[in-house]
């Protein structure tokens, strides 16, 4: 069983705890202040809360053992639920924020005392920053030798990279709401509050589309990175029994699970016991260097020749 099947989703738990408290506070303050931007932020946090729950559902389902109908396990369940998360973020977070923004711009309401609005935004910013720090720490732990940006780009674990994306957008949304509310009160133009809500909706929609595209790529069967493919080729080619490494095909079955099918041409003078020993030796070398390559299928093209 892979690492992803066993590790605790600390990033999700941190984000879930933060978003529950933040969502309630934002919605209450939005009711008191009449701010469209704060209401949009409340909906945003509410959507994020639901998304964390969906990711936990995906993690639970992806950990089920293989069965007769799913011989490679259920790792892709996590990718399916991450796609649902992106849809929820787009429809609920982005859609509601855009609707609120349009409503406030077309029919602006008078904003009330912003004191509690600023207090809640400050507290929300602190909670989101802590949640993002936890998620980034988990990301760095998974890719210790990489920069944060490269680690994020290389991550295929939705329980981490989705939380990082959501928390980053949440911080941008809080800053946007702060600017919009401040400008609306300083100028007396309530429509600026609606513009802030529209901006938040646009941010959420763009991020949701990008996350959906990533989930789609993983769902339909993404190959391993070119760097990993080269390392696998080198490991197989390093064995003395191998004459040529043919086609290498890989597919991600989960965040830390990769299926490998490789065509190897062995020396024609190998006996059957020597051939079996060489295959086992290559499999051990690959798994020893890359534990995420959990399922290995080697097609021995010289098998027919190895008659002794």
How would you portray this structure in words?
The protein has helices spanning 3-6, 10-33, 36-62, 77-106, 115-142, 148-154, 158-187, 191-219, 226-237, 272-289; strands at residues 242-254, 257-266, 293-300. Helix content is 68%, strand content 10%. The chain is elongated, with a radius of gyration of 25 Å. It has a three-stranded mixed beta sheet. It is built from ten helices and three strands. Mean pLDDT is 89; it is low at 1-5 and 304-308. By secondary structure, the protein is mainly α.
The fraction of residues in strands falls at 5-15%
Uncertain residue segments: 1-5, 304-308
From the N-terminal CA to the C-terminal CA, the straight-line distance is 37 Å
Tally of helical segments:
10
Biggest beta-sheet profile: 3 strands, mixed
Classification by helices and strands = mainly alpha
Quaternary state, please? single chain
Q: Residue-averaged pLDDT, rounded?
A: 89
The dominant shape is elongated
Total beta strand runs: 3
CA radius of gyration = 25 Å
Give the topology, please.
Blueprint: H1 3-6, H2 10-33, H3 36-62, H4 77-106, H5 115-142, H6 148-154, H7 158-187, H8 191-219, H9 226-237, E1 242-254, E2 257-266, H10 272-289, E3 293-300
Parallel strand pairs: 2-3
Antiparallel strand pairs: 1-2
Question: What structural keywords apply?
Answer:
three-stranded mixed beta sheet; 308 residues; disordered N terminus; mainly alpha
């Amino acid at each position: 069983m892979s690492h992803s099947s066993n590790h605790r989703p600390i990033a999700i738990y941190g984000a879930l705890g933060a978003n529950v408290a933040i969502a309630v506070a934002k919605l209450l303050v939005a009711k008191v202040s009449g701010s469209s931007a704060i209401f949009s932020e409340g909906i945003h946090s509410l959507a994020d809360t639901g998304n964390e729950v969906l990711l936990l559902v995906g993690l639970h389902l992806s950990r089920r053992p293989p069965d007769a109908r799913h011989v490679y396990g259920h790792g892709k369940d996590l990718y399916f639920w991450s796609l649902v998360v992106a849809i929820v973020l787009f429809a609920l977070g982005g859609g509601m924020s855009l609707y609120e923004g349009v409503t406030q711009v077309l029919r602006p309401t008078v904003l009330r005392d912003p004191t509690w609005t600023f207090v809640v935004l400050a507290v929300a910013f602190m909670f989101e920053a802590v949640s993002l720090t936890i998620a980034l720490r988990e990301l760095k732990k998974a890719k210790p030798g990489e920069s944060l940006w490269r680690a994020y780009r290389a991550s295929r674990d939705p329980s981490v990279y989705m939380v990082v994306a959501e928390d980053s957008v949440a911080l941008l949304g809080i800053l946007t709401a702060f600017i919009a509310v401040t400008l609306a009160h300083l100028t007396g133009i309530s429509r600026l509050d609606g513009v802030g809500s529209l901006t938040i909706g646009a941010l959420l929609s763009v991020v949701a589309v990008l996350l959906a595209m990533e989930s789609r790529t993983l769902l339909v069967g993404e190959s391993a990175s070119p760097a990993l493919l080269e390392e696998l080729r080198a490991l197989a080619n390093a064995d003395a029994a191998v004459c040529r490494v043919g086609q290498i095909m890989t597919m991600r079955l989960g965040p830390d699970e990769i299926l490998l099918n490789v065509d190897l041409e062995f020396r024609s003078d190998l006996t059957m016991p020597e051939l079996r020993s060489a295959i086992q030796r290559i499999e051990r070398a690959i798994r020893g260097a890359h534990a995420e390559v959990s399922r290995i299928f080697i097609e021995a093209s010289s098998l027919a020749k190895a008659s002794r």
